[in-house]
Input
Amino acid sequence: MNNRTFSGKVALVTGGTSGIGKTTAIEFARAGAKVVLTGRREREGAQVVAEIKKLGGDAAFVRTDVAKDADVKAMVDFTVDKFGRLDVEWKGPLDQATEAEYRRVFDINVWGVLNSMRHEILAMLKNGGGAIVNNSSVAGHVGMGQVSIYIASKHAVEGLTKSVALEFARQNIRVNAVAPGVIATDMFARFAGEELGDQIASMIPVGRKGATEEIAAAVLYLCSDDARFTTGTSLIVDGGWVAQ
Output
């Protein structure tokens, strides 16, 4: 899919057990990176690692709850101990909380992002720099009724991305976000069902849902040397939905 190389680089992909995160982990491996993927489901994590190794890549899984500081520190320490460094990091999607679980949503979507960056940046400073891509959403660029807590959390991710990018720009650490729209994942299929899913897809200007590979391509671009002058931005990948 991609023509960018990450040979000699180490990529950390949180939420890498399924959906967009899984595809991103695989594409980093295809591009030559050593990959550490995290999540809360060990069986699925082992399956992704096996898939990457079958492709000839090098990968490892570490169980992580990004809302817990000890887990996040252990995640970064594991990566550095396993592969000697940390170069790029991508944080994957939340797939369990609802708007009623306010603290869980903010713990994972906001504190999880901030706390992950806190530990990752310390590791990257020792390498002389790196790239972080936070998982935002089109929800971080618009308002929507009935999901105000989730919307607020993604707006917070957008603000954190810009602010932390400015803090560490001179230290050669780039911080960006990718903002997916409606993506064809198992999670979306469970949420919407076939009929509603088709209705939602018809509202997207390009006339279809996005593919996980298309989000992975955006992440790899933002982590690559092609984007070395890009920091503090959010790349919307939504088939034109926000532009309406």
Summary: The mean pLDDT is 89. Helices lie at 19-30, 42-54, 69-83, 102-127, 148-168, 186-202, 212-223. The first helix runs from residue 19 to 30. Residues 133 and 219 are 7 Å apart (CA to CA).
